[in-house]
Amino acid sequence: MCAVRDNRRVPEYPSIAALDRLLDDLVVGEARRRQLGMVRGELLRALGQDALPASTRRSLRQLLAEEVLSSYLRLAESGALRARLVGGQRPPTSEATNEIRRQCVDVLRDAVGLPALLLGGGALPLQPTPAFGDLAALRRQLDRDLAGHMPPGRIRLTAVLGLVLDAAPRSGELAALRLADVTPGTTAVYVERRPQRGGGDPDGAGGCVELSPLTRAALDRWLPVRAELVDRAHGTSRLWVSLWHNHDGHAGEEGATLNRPPGMPLEENGLVTSYRRGRAQYGLAGLLPPKLEQLRRAVLDATPPRAVEPAEPTLPPWQAL
Questions:
Q1: What's the number of CA atoms in the CB half-sphere (13 Å) around residue 307?
Q2: What fold does the segment set 132-309 form as a domain?
Q3: CB-based contacts of 151: which residues, under 8 Å, 6+ apart?
Q4: How is the chain split into domains, by residue range?
Q5: Mapping DSSP to helix (H, G, I), strand (E, B) and coil, where does residue 270 land?
Q6: At CB < 8 A and 24+ separation, what contacts does 257-262 make?
Q7: What is the pLDDT of residues 142-170, one digit of tens each?
Q8: Contact indicator for 135, 187 with CB cutoff of 8 Å
Q9: What keywords were assigned to this record (predicted)?
């Protein structure tokens, strides 16, 4: 028997089916969800290789038992459970990946009511963030850019950077923004907080943050570009959309890839990729850190976002009226 998940046919193990249901209901951020998906794939491959006790095929709690997970972690860290070859081999995984895997194991055990194993060495060391003076220089550069002609990609990146500088959203929170989350007149933005580790957010479910003149000007440049792009597609309420044709899926799976026209919603991976490419393409490498998350933390270190009023738990204040 086989079940279909993510367009791939996989063995129908009851423990994996239970894990899939657990993952579907788990409240975590997009980054953590991808990491948990990696662990799910490795556990499936371990079962397929008969590397774990037979009882783990039937019971999720057995699959997440301490002695079973210890065997799984050793096997995964050796590289034997990699989905793809690297240079024709399956080398050991990096310490960063190992740490993430151990954290995911504890997330899963906690979700089924088992105590954490605490096998990880703690949080990964944070990468350096720009100094406050660098953020001020970045704002000045973006302000100068807005005074001249900019291609659509640079307009979008400038608006993204302005929102990060004002509201410090995570990449998943940024990608999830919709037109309705921006106030009329682009004076403020409502950000629904999505902590990576699940559970509550110390800052609440969401908040309304005042936008700076820089960000308001950048959004005023981006919104007409966005509207033209969306008109070519079939419409979306998402704030960030694609600029060019791309594709979805993998050639050879289920026939052919799906062409996606400009104006389609920009997902978190696409947003992060556009940041990385724009940093190099538009000469901002001296002002922007390599990763969007580093910029977010720099903003939080410098000054907290400026809340303008308490927000409703699930709706921006201007939508809740």
A1: 12
A2: hpI Integrase; Chain A (1.10.443)
A3: none
A4: 2-111, 132-309
A5: helix
A6: 261/232, 261/233, 262/229, 262/232, 262/233
A7: 999 999 999 999 999 999 999 999 999 99
A8: no
A9: DNA recombination
Q: How far is CA 260 from the centre of its chain?
A: 20
Q: Please state the rounded mean pLDDT for residues 4-30.
A: 76
How far is the CA of 142 from the CAs of 129, 145, 282, in angstroms? 19, 5, 11
Distance, in Å, from the CA atom of 177 to the CA atom of 169, rounded to the nearest integer, reads 10
> Which residue has better confidence, 204 or 14?
14
Give pLDDT tens digits for 67-118: 999 999 999 999 999 999 888 899 999 988 999 999 899 999 988 988 888 7
What confidence category does residue 27 fall into, taking pLDDT thresholds of 50, 70 and 90? Answer: confident
Predicted local confidence at residue 1, as pLDDT: 38
Burial grade of 143 (CB within 10 A; 0-12, 13-18, 19 or more): middle
**Count of other CB atoms within 10 angstroms of residue 315:** 15
Residue with tokens 């389609």: 264
Distance CA 136, CA 96 (A): 32
Question: What is the separation of C-alpha 3 from the centre of its chain, rounded to a whole number of angstroms?
Answer: 27
Vertex 217, ends 212 and 221: CA angle to 5°? 145
Residue 36 phi, psi dihedral angles, 5° rounding: -65, -35
Confidence (pLDDT) at 5: 44
For 40, the 3-state DSSP assignment is helix
* Secondary-structure breakdown of the chain: helix, strand, coil percentages, each rounded to the nearest 5: 45, 10, 40
Q: Determine the 3-state secondary structure of 212 from DSSP.
A: coil
- Strand-pairing partners, residue 89, are 86
> Is residue 186 within 8 Å of residue 216, measured between CB atoms?
yes
Measuring CA to CA, which residue among 24, 34, 114 is closest to residue 68?
114
